[in-house]
Design brief:
Elements: E1 2-4, E2 8-10, E3 15-17, E4 35-37, E5 45-46, E6 56-60, E7 65-70, E8 73-78
Antiparallel strand pairs: 1-5, 2-3, 2-4, 6-7, 7-8
């Protein structure tokens, strides 16, 4: 929710300048929001409400990385480095 100013939100397929009072829901996964930034010289204030799971996973498609979040600690990994897991038989 935008409390003040005109921040820009970057989604998976576009950018949008927001206005005071705008509310933008971000779905989980690659279709969700990727960034909120203030491109203006004025102050921007946003309220972000989140319901994170613990543990959680965040994808960064622009960089090909994945973050695992456990108890508030982030670890980052390159998705391209994934290997098969052979469990016990």
């Amino acid at each position: 929710m935008v409390l003040r100013g005109t921040p820009t939100v970057r989604m998976h397929d576009s950018e949008r300048v927001l206005a005071e009072g705008d509310v933008v829901p971000f779905p989980r996964g690659p279709e969700g929001g990727h960034q909120i930034r203030n491109d203006s010289d004025d102050v921007a204030r946003v309220l972000i409400v989140s319901a994170h799971a613990n543990p959680d996973v965040a994808e960064y498609p622009e960089t090909g990385k994945v973050s695992m979040i456990v108890d508030g600690k982030h670890t980052y990994h390159r998705a391209a480095d994934a290997v098969e897991h052979a469990g016990p038989e």
